[in-house]
Known about the structure:
The chain contains 12 helices and 12 strands. By secondary structure, the chain is of the alpha+beta class. The strands form 3 sheets. The protein has a 6-stranded antiparallel β-sheet with strand order 3-2-11-6-9-8. Helix 5 (226-262) packs antiparallel against helix 10, helix 6 packs across helix 8 and helix 10 packs antiparallel against helix 12. The protein is elongated and about 115 Å long.
Amino acid sequence: MARPAAATTPSTAPAGDTRSPLRRIAAQYAESRIAMLALATLSAVAVIAVTAPLIAPQNPYDLRAIDIEDGRLPPGSAKLSRPADVGMTVIIRDRLTGDRPGYDVKARGRAGDAPAGALELRLVAAPDGTGARRFEMTLVPAPAGPLDPLRNAQLRGLPRGTELSAGKKDRFRNVWKLTGEDVRDLVVTLPASAGDGVRFTLTASGGTQRHLMTYWLGTDDQGRDMLSAIFYGLRISLGVALVSVLIALSFGTLVGLYAAYHGGRADALIMRVVDLQLSFPTILVALILLAILGKGIFNVVLALVIVQWALYARTARGVALAERQKEYVESAACLGLGPARIIVYHILPNCTPSLIVIATLEVAHAISLEATLSFLGLGLPVTQPSLGLLISNGFDYLLSGYPWISVSPGVALLITVVAINLVGDELRDILNPRLQR
Length: 437
């Protein structure tokens, strides 16, 4: 006798779906491309946050790795090794050799990163008959030395009124800044009031530079790599949000289930406290708490827990009241099970889908709230910066030609919050029985 063909049941028909609930949820979630893209983005953000110390090009809060001279570099700039420096104090005194005026030159070298003698200094007298004194100065780097090629130099302490044939003088300090080409053929004219002795300091730098890294998102005012700072900021922002949501979810759920199961005065008292909590703006409550408690990760987490637990309590109570009237709860009570076991093992599992959706959406809200508090200066300290603090650090430079300092962490915050919200919206549609297809 031939065996009849097995009947196939469409996967969209819940009545004939033999898959486990988890596999069914995963299959329905995969039907939305936007939700899958959001999940992939959120997964990438989570991986970056967890592995930030391993994948970040730089530890942005290690003072040994930060160079303030790299401050406010645009995106794509290269970090180069600093050239070697050699400084010397030059003393020029008048002297007469026969009928020809000249200068008695003494140079005292002060070696920095390069050995002494890396510079050859030549001074040639050239009086111009106007009372001023002029000399020509040429710096010749030692062949294959640490200053070859010569890059720049600075002259400090020249007499007021001195004129140079090249270079640029600092408006606020008595410092002349010269390029390598300027220093190779430089004419210095001293004023007639300079006297018989002139002393100034010459500092030259140069040498072959190596490409150390690339600042793909630029640097901030302290010279920190913005890409690395964002990686570390994501780590702290996500960590604070997840910890606060887990604590608030656990506490608020237990309180809401207790109020729904026991009812009476306990329910009325808890719900009035919840109503009072939800009547205040969350940002206002958080600001007051942090103004009292002060900065710090623990204080931020505590403030977020206090402003969030009431929402979970109300959600858990609303779902538990509907479950409380069902037969399986009455059957468990007839079997002599205690209230705690009924709440935890029977009612709580049926309230979990709604709580998961609320918790997912509240993670994004917690990240935004923490970023707001840090932006206002009441969140995390400078030594533990989050995305909000990074945005705040670049706010003063937003209209000064350095927008990437504030825009880059702002875009990272936007991507994170949007991805979490899209994942939460899709989960809400799947886990809501009224929207089942």
